[in-house]
Each structure stands twice: as C-alpha cells, then as structure tokens.
Amino acid sequence: MINNSSEQLPLSIVIPCFNQGEFIGEALSSIEQCRDPVYEIIIVNDGSTDPFTINVFNHLKQQGYTILNQSNQGLACARNNGIANAQGQYILALDADNKIRPAYIYKGIEILDHDPEIGVVYGDAEYFGERNDRLTVADFDADRLLLGNYIDACAVFRKGVWEECGGYDETMPLQGYEDWDLWLNAMQKGWKFYHVPDVLFDYRVRSGSMISICKIPENKKKLVNYVCTKHRDLYTRNLAYLIAEKDCLADACWNEAQQLRTQLNQAQAELEQSHQAIATSYEKIRAMESSRFWQFRTLWFQLKRALGLLTTDVLKTR
C-alpha cells in the first residue's frame, strides 16, 4: 500500500536498498498483504549502481512509491535517512531481501499503542533461501543482549527511541552491528522490549550477505571491540556477570566437545567391529569355497547341467 497522506500514520516501513532490485519486489509484496491504510513505505536507494536495480527504482517511482536517493553511504545512513523522512510514529526496519508477515504490522502497532514504556517489539523469523527452518528467539534479557545481539534489525520501534538514541551509528568500522548498538542504547535509556513468540518475518539466507561477512573472525572481533568500547560503562557495570557467563559458556562448550568426542570414539569402535565382522565372514566364505566339499558340489552341478537334469528353479536357488 502506498500512502502519501499528510496525516501522521501509525507506522513507516523503511527499506534501504543497494543493488538488490531482484529482491525488493518480494519485500513490497509481503508488506502489501496488509490492506489497511496504517502504514507508508519509504525505499532508500543507497547509491545503487546495478542497471537492473536502477530500472526497478524507476518503475516503482512511476507506480507512486517513495524513493529517496542518496550516494552510497552504507546501511546505517540509509536507515537514518529513511526514518528522518518518515511520517509514522513507529518504524519497521526491513532489509530489501527479506519479507514480513502482516501480523508484524498489526501487532507492532497494537503493542506500542497499549504500553508507552515499550520501545521495541520483535518476533521470530522463518529462514528461506539457502536454509529453511524457524529462528526462535528468546524473550528480552538485558544480560543476554550484552553477550551478543539476538534481536534482528527487523523490529517495530518508536521513532522517539531512534531519536533519543541518536539513530543508527554511521561510524562503525564495518556495517552489520548497527542494530545491536541501537538496542543497547535503548536498553540503557530504560526502554522496554517486547517479544512476540510468533513468526513475524522471513529472513533470506544467502552467501555473501552482510551478516556472513560480519561473522568472519577478524571482522567480528573488530565490531565487538567497537561496540563494547562504545558502551564501556554498561559493560563495566556488568563485568562480573559477563565473566561468569563466558566462563560457564566455555565449560558448557568443553563438556559438549567431550561428549561429542566420546560419541565419535564409540562410533569408530563400532565401525571397526563391523569391518572385522565383514572380514571374518569373507574369510569363512573363501575357506568354504576352497574346501573339497565345495569343489565336489560345483562339479556335481556342472555334471547335472550337462545332462540336462538341473532345472531352472534349482539354478535360481544357487
């Protein structure tokens, strides 16, 4: 649905896009499954250079979609630009290669309308593309969020939260952890998070995506160091918990590794036993075939065949 009304809408859906014209049609179709006029769509062209994507933008603009053009400045800047131009009091951040369920729009608005202390609403996801299963995330836990981000950028949040937190950080050494930084800022400022235990969006898994680049150890180390340094006071206050939790996680990983090693050793032992049993059976067969009885039996069948006394049924039973 495209809404160009001057009246404030409950929700603005902001879609940054850089050379992803092949996917954005699916994203828009998923949004427009919601027929009620409660949202606007803002697409931010982050300096796309792909001719196909540029043609897609031209086509969408002709259809009445709002397209904001900017030079390539990265995901954080594109989201910030889109939100700054949003009419809605709530924001739903959607990547161009993902999709949402209509329930995300309805539930996000309903929950934020009902409780002014809630700043962020998030839900579970369904993977598609190179992976097909459900991503079930946990209810909000401040300590858990300190250990790592588990709340996807595809969430519904108040525009006021974004303003109070200073928007997405555009100065990170690499793109990809801007949402974690925003959630930490929101948590520090006392905003509540609400988890809806339903699948509310579809997450496309594909090689070469931004998140896969962030998982490269060197990149991840750089990003985590940046976020933790930026939120030094928050991490310092929770240092004892973080050390204890990391230690428990390390012990759990060690115990799991030991269990896997034991299972592997058992499997190898069973495999060796199977190989030995097969080898023993072959030896018995070879010994039997080399025996005088077997040789006499073979000659006897050859003689009967020559005399025409061996029936087809008997031959089949050999």
UniProtKB/TrEMBL annotation:
**Pfam families linked:** Glycos_transf_2
InterPro entries given for it?
Glyco_trans_2-like, Glycosyltransf_2, Nucleotide-diphossugar_trans
Q: Where are the transmembrane segments?
A: none
Q: Tell me the domain of life.
A: Bacteria
Every Glycosyltransferase 2-like domain range: 12-135
The name on file for this protein is Glycosyltransferase
